[in-house]
């Protein structure tokens, strides 16, 4: 089968398509409760601006998902995407034991994808991911429609957890 030549629209999940506000409380504890944080993900309400952008992007692009969620969350993530009516697409997830900052893991995947396909846009809420992708020459939309706590921002960058 011939691979698609449609450009890719790459979407983050947490804070971009999924509203994580209700589960950020798990990160306020010491130590942080990662099992609770990711276990509550199936109950995330959708972020309408992100969902609309993904649906609109699907008209011209193949929509794919690039998340810092660990691989062990794949089944819940697939169910959540389907329940929101989001386009089917490949999902790149963090290996369960990968603690590198999201700006490194996501940029690595973007560069791999760009070898074979045009990446029309990356949509992500993480400022550092967006900055790194822009510096590498990618077109970026920073999702600023969700609310991220300082604990979540710290977890994304220092702890490499999402």
Write the layout of secondary structure elements.
Blueprint: E1 8-11, H1 34-39, H2 48-57, E2 62-70, H3 74-83, E3 91-94, H4 102-116, E4 119-124, H5 127-135, E5 140-142, H6 150-159
Parallel strand pairs: 1-2, 1-4, 2-3, 4-5
Helix pairs in contact: 4-5
What does this 3D model show about the protein?
- This protein is α/β, with parallel strands linked by helices.
- The chain has a single domain, classed as HAD superfamily/HAD-like (Rossmann fold, 3-Layer(aba) Sandwich), CATH 3.40.50.
- It is built from six helices and five strands.
- The protein has helices at 34-39, 48-57, 74-83, 102-116, 127-135, 150-159; strands at 8-11, 62-70, 91-94, 119-124, 140-142.
- A five-stranded parallel beta sheet has the order 3-2-1-4-5, with helices on both faces.
- Helix 5 (127-135) links the parallel strand 4 (119-124) and strand 5.
- Helix 4 (102-116) crosses helix 5 (127-135).
């Amino acid at each position: 089968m011939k691979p698609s030549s449609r450009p890719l629209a790459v979407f983050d999940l947490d804070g971009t398509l999924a509203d994580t506000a209700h589960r950020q409380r798990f990160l306020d504890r010491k130590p942080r409760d990662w099992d609770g944080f990711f276990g509550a993900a199936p109950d995330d309400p959708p972020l309408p601006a992100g969902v609309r952008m993904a649906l609109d992007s699907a008209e011209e692009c193949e929509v794919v998902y690039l998340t810092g969620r660990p691989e062990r969350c794949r089944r819940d993530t697939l169910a959540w995407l389907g329940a929101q009516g989001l386009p089917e697409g490949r999902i790149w997830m963090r290996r369960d034991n990968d603690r590198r900052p999201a700006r490194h893991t996501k940029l690595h995947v973007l560069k791999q994808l760009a070898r074979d396909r045009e990446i029309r846009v990356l949509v992500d809420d993480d400022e550092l991911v967006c900055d790194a992708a822009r510096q590498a020459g990618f077109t970026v939309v920073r999702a600023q429609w969700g609310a991220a706590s300082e604990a979540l921002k710290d977890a994304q960058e220092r702890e490499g957890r999402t």
